[in-house]
Specification:
alpha/beta; 9 helices; 6 strands
Length: 206
């Protein structure tokens, strides 16, 4: 028996809540056990529908396989999340991904692309070579800390979700909604800063 199945078997009946984040469809092997947990949730990272771009960014399974796994879990009554992360400015088509996934997920999380350390240099070099038309935008965002793009995108998504009949909120991944309700779209832009701020506030008040 594989290690994850041993874990699910040991935890079965304990009443514990589980949340799984993945880029794979291997989790399908454990669907029968995972669906037995109350309020289990499984999320898949999807930041493009373009398989060529996906292959350049990660070595995980195809987007279609991720979406198929998401549908299988959702059809089985397990809450699912489409995690649009990281959103690449000018590349990630947020509305297209939401439209593609909304019938098979309960939540849509949005997270901006954060660039740090060597990863920042690597991505900027990739943009310079593959998408030179976007280089000025990336330099503005990641070298001059200009957040205009994210503010504009936030407004565009708010308008889009309104037209789609979807609820759009910030930093709220509540699961207290009927399973069959349309997904909530949650904006987690710059969430890492919010978490740091919260930790500082907690330490101050300790």
């Amino acid at each position: 028996m594989a290690a994850p199945r041993r874990c699910w078997n040991k935890c079965g009946g304990s009443g514990c809540k589980i949340s799984i984040a993945t880029k794979s469809d291997l989790v399908l092997r454990d669907l029968d056990l995972i669906k037995a947990f109350p309020n289990a949730r499984v999320s898949w990272s999807i930041n493009t529908l373009d398989e060529d771009f996906r292959r350049e960014m990660d070595e995980a399974v195809s987007i279609e396989r991720r979406l198929a796994a998401m549908k299988a879990f959702h059809d089985a009554g397990v809450r699912t999340t489409c995690f649009l992360s990281p959103i690449f400015p000018g590349i990630t088509d947020v509305p297209a991904i939401i439209r593609r996934a909304k019938a098979q997920c309960n939540l849509v999380w949005l997270e901006n692309l954060n660039l740090r350390g060597s990863y920042k240099a690597a991505i900027l070099e990739y943009i310079k070579k593959k998408r030179p038309d976007l280089l000025p935008l990336y330099q503005a965002i990641y070298q001059r800390n200009d957040r205009t793009y994210w503010a504009t995108l936030d407004e565009e998504i708010r308008e889009f979700t309104g037209l789609e009949g979807l609820t759009y909120v910030r930093d709220d991944d509540s699961m207290h909604r009927p399973f069959e309700a349309p997904p909530i779209v949650v904006n987690f832009f710059f969430h890492e800063e919010i978490k740091k701020s919260a930790k500082k506030e907690a330490a101050k008040n300790a």
